[in-house]
Amino acid sequence: MEANYLAKMRQGKSTDVDRIRSEVTGEDVQGGKTVVHTKVNSGEDTAAIDYVMEKRPKGWRAVDVITEGVSLVETYREQVAKILAKKTLNDVIAALDRKRKALEAEETKPASG
Question: Per residue in 29-64, pLDDT tens?
C-alpha cells in the first residue's frame, strides 16, 4: 500500500515527497477499534486520512485506511472479489505480490528528466 501511494506521488511533477508532513488531529473509539484522524500536507495540497487501529496481542495494528472518506479495505475487497470469481486465492496473492515488487522496483530506479 505504501509503495503504491509513494509511486503515485512521485509521478506528479508538483509533489515533493520529502516535504510531505502529517499531523494527528484527533481520535475516536468505535467499538473495539480506534480511528486516528490525520491531516497530510504537501505544499498547498491537504488530504484527510483516517487510520482504523485495533489492539491485538502483539500491539496496535492498522486494519483500514480511509482517505477522503474512501475505505481501502472496501476498495480492495471489491477488487479481490472480482478476481476470485474467475481465479483462485493463490492467483490473487501472486498478483498482489507481483504488483508490490513492480512498485518497489520502480521506486529504486533513478529519476529521469
Answer: 988 899 999 988 877 778 888 999 999 899 999 899
- Cα–Cα distances (Å) from 84 to 60, 71, 88, in that order, read 30, 20, 6
Sequence-distant (≥ 6) Cβ neighbours of residue 63 within 8 angstroms: 33, 52, 53, 54, 73
Kindly report the number of other CB atoms within 10 A of residue 54's CB atom.
13
Rounded to whole angstroms, how far apart are CA atoms 26 and 31? 17
Give the span between the Cα atoms of 101 and 82, in whole angstroms.
Answer: 22
Query: Is the CB of residue 31 less than 8 Å from the CB of residue 18?
Result: no
Asked whether 23 and 32 are in contact (CB, 8 A), the reply is no
